[in-house]
Specification:
heterodimer, A: 118 residues, mainly beta, seven-stranded mixed beta sheet, four-stranded antiparallel beta sheet, 11 strands, 0% helix, B: 112 residues, 10 strands
């Protein structure tokens, strides 16, 4: 069955770089797009960026200068790197699969909580 | 960017009653194919968001017919009929008409 699972450090120091991994199963990264969405504690959802099935990427312009998304198709993994972290980057980070025939996120990971603090 | 604005519910809603959640977009979400690119999600406490409807009014697989989406190009409503305890959580609208994809700020539903 389709699964996505985020992993990464729970605590990152201010000004440092966040590195997260989304490991997928049940589908191919060369057939589906995978997106990253984050959610500050008690707040709403923010789209961050995506890795397309063909390897192209696109980013939220608000984060573009700090954000990089890449992948390793042999390991079924999508990576997120974001630098210059600040306290307002604290939140839960989700990876989610895009269903292109319907234009929606059909499967989500459980999310990984990241706290930016010294 | 398209701004999504959601309304507030008069919580708590008595079990068995109906609840309507509103969402407005700063730009029409109707594409040239005639479809309206508006999705609704429910996020229960401690869980990931769950898709309820897409293309404004098409229910996702396995979603109860108590959930119905409607609207125009810029004003949308998610109606929940005969609310139940399991419907509690935060509801988000999301536009997928163009990038960056954007979400509303969420509408909390509490059940009495």
């Amino acid at each position: 069955q389709v699964q996505l699972k985020e992993s990464g450090p729970g605590l990152v120091q201010p000004s440092q770089t966040l590195s997260l991994t989304c490991t997928v199963s049940g589908f191919s990264l060369t057939s589906y797009n995978v997106h990253w969405v984050r959610q500050p504690p008690g707040k709403g959802l923010e789209w961050m960026g995506r890795m397309r099935y063909n390897g192209d990427t696109s980013y939220n312009s608000a984060l573009k200068s700090r954000l990089s998304i890449s992948r390793d198709t042999s390991k079924n993994q999508v990576f997120l790197k974001m630098n210059s972290l600040q306290t307002d980057d604290t939140g839960t980070y989700y990876c989610t699969r895009w269903y292109n025939s319907g234009y929606y996120f059909d499967y989500w990971g459980q999310g990984v909580m990241v706290t930016v603090s010294s | 960017d398209i701004v999504m604005t959601q309304g507030v519910l008069p919580n708590p809603v008595p079990s068995g009653e109906s609840a309507s959640i509103t969402c407005r977009s700063s730009k029409s979400l109707v594409y040239k194919d005639g479809k309206t690119y508006l999705n609704w999600f429910l996020q229960r406490p401690g869980q990931s968001p769950q898709l309820l409807t897409y293309w404004m009014s098409t229910r996702a697989s396995g979603v109860s017919d108590r959930f119905s989406g409607s609207g125009s190009g810029t004003y949308f409503t998610l109606k929940i009929s005969r609310v139940r305890a399991e419907d509690a959580g935060v509801y988000y609208c999301q536009q997928v008409r163009e990038y960056p994809l954007t979400f509303g700020s969420g509408t909390k539903l509490e059940i009495k």
